[in-house]
Amino acid sequence: MRPRKYTVRLTELEKKRLVAITKKRDSPDRQVVRAKILLQLNVEPDRKGKPKPVPGQREIADRCHCEIALIYRVSRQYAEEGIERVLNRKKRKVPLSMRVRTGRVEARICELYQTKPPPGYDCWSLRLLADVAHEKGIVHYISAPTVAAILKKWGLSPIEKKRVKV
Question: What does the alpha-carbon distance between residue 162 and residue 20 come to, in Å, rounded to a whole number?
Fold first, then answer.
């Protein structure tokens, strides 16, 4: 058996925190599994000061009901980034984009659908509605299936020719 590339040495405070996470019923499953893995990987000295043997990755994976690759990732992450990064997900640097389908956007697309189509077109297609909505600055980008969902929600169908006469 080859030596471990990353060793886990927990402080007493870290051990107490991990044990508390595993015992709490409201802790997220991801945290509980990773806490159990860290507790299993911990290298503790015995009475003579020599490190106690740590179970193998396969044995830890069986005990924690997870993949062997996760054991390696957790030990590497602990060694490189610390316990906080192992237990908690990384925060996004860029926030999620704003929703495209707001009530205002839906209303403007429905209004657009009920107007006369641009010159050269007999009726509105989903792609044409999406393109014109983008050109008029209603939305930055919208796909044809999203336009279809909006029309369906408001009971307007591009297949049925129910239009307000202009």
Answer: 62
